[in-house]
Amino acid sequence: MRTYRLEIRLIQLSVALSVLVVIVGFLGAWGGSKGQENGAPDRSETAQTQTKTLENTKIVALGDSFTYGYPGKTEQSWVAVLEKSLKVSVVNKGKGYQRTMDLLSRFEADVVAEKPGRIIIFSGNGDALRSVPLEEFQTNIKALVDKSRSNNITPILALPMPYPGVQQTIKEMRTWMLQYAETESIVVLDFASAVMDADNKYRGGFSDDNKYPTAKGYEAMGEYAARVLK
């Protein structure tokens, strides 16, 4: 009789253990699937998370003669110095006799087509020399910034250089651009601070005519831009 009862208890214990194993297995499987449903990454997801997306470091410099490197060659421009200093691609899209409206007209071909991550907009001298109204200049700068952002390109504004004969106009442009850039959280480059004194005169060796920089002047401008953009 005792043997029979013992056998019954063993059978009951075996059944109970079997049920417990099934329950534990079910809970484990359910918990694992629940974890994935809640966003718990598997190995492949973890690997993807650890892979960082590379930033687009390419820069387009859009501007006039000061961007091109006049009266020298583009190889001696501040753009070339910046490219060498930052060790990234910096495309020189500077041309002579350019106004902000000219930059707008070639934006698609010279900027969007290059697919840069950033753009340096360096304009204003051409507008001042051709008596473009300040309001029109402002409208064009805003349009260039809007076009940049709509194409996922970060805009950087370079202030126009003080220039003989149009100093007051340039001063008004620079003042407005600083205020606008602050409002829009835009990085500003003031190249004049790198090569000119408080009287808007080029410091020794940086210009031969007090209008355009020498190769030495452009080198100082490029080094300045590199310090800011780093």
Automatic annotation (TrEMBL):
Keyword Transmembrane helix in record: yes
InterPro entries xref list: Ester_Hydrolysis_Enzymes, SGNH_hydro, SGNH_hydro_sf
Keywords of this entry: Membrane, Transmembrane, Transmembrane helix
SGNH hydrolase-type esterase domain: residues covered: 61-220
Any one GO molecular-function label of the UniProt entry: phosphatidylcholine lysophospholipase activity
Top-level taxon of origin: Bacteria
Presence of the UniProt keyword Repeat in the record: no
Membrane spanning stretches: 12-31
PANTHER family: SGNH HYDROLASE-TYPE ESTERASE DOMAIN-CONTAINING PROTEIN, THIOESTERASE 1/PROTEASE 1/LYSOPHOSPHOLIPASE L1
Name of the protein this chain belongs to: Lysophospholipase
